[in-house]
Amino acid sequence: MEKQYLFTPGPTPVPPQVLAAMAEPIVHHRGPDFRLVYERALSRLQEVFRTNAPVLLFSASGTGAMDSAVANLVSPGQRVAVVTAGAFGERWVAICEQYGLDVQRIAYEWGETPNADEVGGAVAESGARIVFCTQSETSTGVVSDVQALKGAVGSAVLVVDAISSLGAVPLETDAWGIDVVVAGSQKALMCPPGLAMASLSEALWDDLPQARGFYFDWRRTRKAQEVFDAAFTPAVSLIRGLDVALGMLLGAGLDAAFERHTRLGRAARAGIKAMGLELFSPDDDSSSVVTVARVPDGVDGTELLRHLRDRHGVTLAPGQGGLKGKIFRIGHIGWFDVFDIAAALAAVELSLVELGADIERGVAVTRAFEAYEQRVAV
Amino acid sequence: MEKQYLFTPGPTPVPPQVLAAMAEPIVHHRGPDFRLVYERALSRLQEVFRTNAPVLLFSASGTGAMDSAVANLVSPGQRVAVVTAGAFGERWVAICEQYGLDVQRIAYEWGETPNADEVGGAVAESGARIVFCTQSETSTGVVSDVQALKGAVGSAVLVVDAISSLGAVPLETDAWGIDVVVAGSQKALMCPPGLAMASLSEALWDDLPQARGFYFDWRRTRKAQEVFDAAFTPAVSLIRGLDVALGMLLGAGLDAAFERHTRLGRAARAGIKAMGLELFSPDDDSSSVVTVARVPDGVDGTELLRHLRDRHGVTLAPGQGGLKGKIFRIGHIGWFDVFDIAAALAAVELSLVELGADIERGVAVTRAFEAYEQRVAV
Which of A218, A252, A286 is the last residue of a domain? Predict the structure, then answer.
């Protein structure tokens, strides 16, 4: 009976229209009804990626698309560079190491924002021709400036994990010359998990080495998609949901979504600070998908999250790795408005009081609304 | 407004209860609510696989599980044997070749049933230590006797593609000593496509080589599942649906499902023959998941299927590869009863008459009901 609130940075809440589409009767993936949905979803993905290149769609978690990038772009033993500043940068390292690559780690502390000039210098020094990075590092709330990173790495291929940022934060794939983008369905695209995407610039297609692995072979998937088919039976229900969600996102406008996320980030930060909590994620507009706060002294972070969930039905995300118990994360990716931020802040405030923390009461939500009201310069 | 009938051998119709579960609000994959569903679904999968070994669950199409078997079991350049008798045997070959293996093809004509003694002899002669086969070859309607195949290949590892057979045809993974089984959600498990599974015997775990690829690394997935976690954000909606569907399947009893499929196959064959059509799939109880008929002379097979679909809302499957236009396939896998067979037969009969074929009218459905009524010896 208790209402449940999902404020994790993935999976994220899915609009009822999308859930309803998921419950439609199954259709054959090669029939004309589905082909129409599939063709439209693929075309809408290109709009969201802001690319004219095909966007490859896989039935898989987002990590499947990351795996596919390494399996299709890199030859055995090749030197690659990975920018790391959190759990998802570490995932690139783990994938590259599993493929036996010579991995040069360009490492930042968790919570730091990668610096484009430093990354460019390190890449030039190493001679790596492929660079992996993370646009939104959901473990810390840091959003990297991938346009600057692409400028800094020059002719090296830049592979951007945009899983938690696509549709929330600007990503001009073609205009910025981003070589490869991977994404997933369960973040700002407002769908359940289970679909992964990859786009790569037309120039890259000619020089792809032989893919390692079969299921994620980019050439096979591209060839099938060219005739609006899928290489293997696709997750038809999820793709129906994706089509509906992308229609909603594009109908309201992608720029409006970016502005909304910026304002949601402002609202969340203002509320956190108003309570007297310390932000862990950057205190500026760069950070608009996940707001991360330090757990106040005297409170056990694991207990705080358990209390929020079991007492109030509110699910936030804990810290990952070495940050476990020290921070908590409020995701506001995708189907979120300012009233969701108000609910999350109010629940945090109430729970901290119930756990005996010494915080400022009764101001967080008001400050959040005020911060949200300020227009964003476009 | 027109009702739609899906009689393809995958995706297959999904019960409304499962579709409704798919539309439930998204929950966090690490929260206690989902963990309960996940744990139960994994345990139910073991019951359906009839194994005590863990069943690994991937967010992917069935082909992803096939890929995972090759990526985890075989070392580069190793000799393997593949039993081929249709499109899905060819898929094993394609996967093995993409991994650069030395593939010994034990080839049968499409429509033939592999002979265990012949397969055993060919495997012994080749010295292959890993053998890939297909339990239900949906392209032809042939179901192989995988118990006999395991007996014939002796100590070689037998990998069974049970994607379209699991839950429809007996598969005693542990009792028969089947080393590896791969399956998918969208056939007899009565779910939408998007989930893939693999089980392997405990004895195999110790000697696994380093996995090629990251996403489908069996060790990583097993380690996560041991604490009822997933290695990567799983397709929570599909897994909820799977849990409901497996509950229905096991609630009615797996043996009852096997018997039902046997009787559905009898009914479909009796009806096809009563119309005066020629069966392409074997005319015996071995073939109980897909019934395949030859398109009668004077009728264009592609036109027949288009007519069925566009005029009557009935989707059957065409022939694949060299059989395109020559055969049509009626899937009766999963959520099917005898009235579905009656509807499929009636639609085929009506369409053939409308297309001017000279067939026997008015007897197919009655013969189907009669054949269905005979009890199956257990």
Answer: A252
Residue A375: pLDDT band with limits 50, 70, 90: confident
pLDDT, tens only, B356-365: 999 999 999 9
- Work out the end-to-end distance of chain A between its first and last CA atoms, rounded to an integer number of angstroms: 43
Q: Tens digit of pLDDT for each residue in A75-117? A: 999 999 999 999 999 999 999 999 999 999 999 999 999 999 9
What is the CATH number for A164?
3.40.640.10
In chain A, the residue whose alpha carbon lies closest to the alpha carbon of B92 is: A214
Of B4, B26, B315, the CB nearest to A6: B26
Q: Is residue A378 included in any domain, yes or no? A: no
* Same domain, yes or no: A340 and A243: no
- Same domain for B257 and B225, yes or no, is no
For residues B114 and B260, give the distance between their C-alpha atoms in angstroms, rounded to a whole number: 24
3-class secondary structure, B16? helix
User: A214, A218, A311: best mutation site toward chain B, by most B Cβ within 10 Å?
Assistant: A214
Tally of structural domains, chain A: 2
Q: How far is the C-alpha of B348 from the C-alpha of A28, rounded, in Å?
A: 18
What's the ipTM? Answer: 0.96
pLDDT of residue B249 exceeding 70, the answer is yes
Q: Where are the beta strands (DSSP E) in A27-140?
A: 55-59, 79-84, 102-107, 130-134, 136-137
Among A27, A139, A161, A233, most B C-beta atoms within 10 A, so best to mutate, is A233
A320 has a chain B CB within 8 A of its CB: no
Which tens digits make up the pLDDT trace of B252-300?
A: 999 999 999 999 999 999 999 999 999 999 999 999 999 999 999 999 9
Of A6, A61, A213, the CB nearest to B212: A213
Do residues A262 and A180 both lie within one domain? no
Structure tokens at B308: 């069925």
